[in-house]
Amino acid sequence: MSALPGAERRAALTAVLAVVLATVMLAVGALRAVPTVASWTDTETVHGQVGTGSLVCGADARYVTRSDARFLSGSLLRTNLDALASLRGMNLVRPGAAAAAPTPTNAVNLGVNDGDPTLDTFGNPLAVSALGGIAGLDLTGLSVGLPVGSAGPANQYTQVTSTGRSVAASGLVSNTGGVLVSGDTPPATLPGRARVSLSGVLPAVANVSDARLAVGAVGSSASLDWCGALRSSVWGDGSVTGVTRSYGIAGLDLEVASPLVRSLTSSVSSTVNALNSAVPTLAGTNGLISQAIRSSILAGVTNLLRIGTVTGTVTVTNLNLSAALGGLLTTPLSDGGVTVDLASGIVRVNLATLLGDGARGLNDLPPNHEVVLDAALLNGIGDRVRALLTAWTAQVTTALTAAIGAATVTVNQEVTLTNLLNLGNVLRLNVSFSSSLANVLNGTTQATVTASVLGGLVGIDVTALTTLLRTSIITSVAGTLTTQLSARVTALGTTLATTRTSLVTALGSVVSALPSVVSLRVNVQPDRPGAPPGSTFDPGAPPWTSPAYSVAALRLGLFDSLAPANGFAYATFARSTVGPSTAPY
Q: Per its UniProt entry, which superkingdom is the organism in (predicted)?
């Protein structure tokens, strides 16, 4: 480029300087109107979109923060849970530098601010003992076996700071807001269960006295660092939300109470009583075993002879039926997914395991996960119960058969035969044996039979007679033992099979109705995709006011023809909400 004349060069330079100066002045003016927002180490940052205030994370104490915790809300079997004073939640608001305002006003000040005037922590734990009288809901099980460090199964914890942070927790949580239930929590350290009746939504089913959902301990927590989120949104890439949420569910079962379950054990008990009562009728000089021996003798001699006197003993000992059964009548039958509780008369279906994430149950699932009551999987429950009871029946009958076989029968008798013509005693037989009933029943035992001729016998081969009686007597006694003992066990097996079939049929009727009357969601977060219908979400007022971030451990829906949405009314367990929070500007 050729050089410009001196005057033209001075004019061009003057123009460039003017543009640069104007640009600098505009920049200076803009910077004067921009506040600073410091990091946690008070590093100041500026941005042209921020107003005239100054934000210093961790130091600025002018935030308005909120947190809310509620153990149980919504509607359950036409009871408005939100209207019950006994279920009142905990709400805490920190209006900037002023003291926090708790609701209810008699909430417990947990006093954990460690002298920090910007921090407030309040709780409103619900006393389970005071939550009775809610139709279809029994929470008393939750108070049994609470873990160490728990503030109760229905704790409601809130914490707010004027520096932009807020925490909420509800359910089985500690007084520091920690959730005490997860997929890794040993079941033995968890409390019992709350129970929600299904009798109001299920059709009547023969041989079913009650059906309910058993909800294990639940807990949730949420925290929000609104200053950190705001800094990321205004000066960063917006990737930091400042929100942390967690939840835990100890378990969820379907419990079906049926009189058929207890009839299983009562049938066994009745058979045991009948077997024990049969023993005295078998023993004794004139008992059924003695009568069988006489019949066998008469079958082996001429019609001219009859039984005369019978002396001696017959005993049956060591029949220990109850000991043989052990815990078969009380120990629950389980395959890990289905349990038949023989003592309580309940069939328990572990929905958390069958419909959740295996051993972790309903924990660690994504936000707004729907627990689908899959019909095919539920229909397999009947097969599981049938398999459990078939195996149990075999165990019971095998145990009783073994106990009968292990008993001992001892015979030591003297039988005289009388001639019908001259009315005199013509033959004395001594019969003796001692054997397990098993050997008698399987024919491996032989009786000892000796004969003494008393006179008047004509045409009888005594040797042949005693040889015959050694086997025939055992055969006759075995027939009596079969009728009085073994046949009762066989009949018991038939009775149990019939009861089992009826129970599986009844259970199938309950299970098949579940998908149409029960709806389940876990880890409910209204601001995330897939939020269930009817969820409410407060988006706040960007950029200064945050959304309200919420998490609920479990959302249970039960069919109600009067419910406004899809015929279902919903109850929410362990909901924790933080925000909306507002930054100073």
A: Bacteria
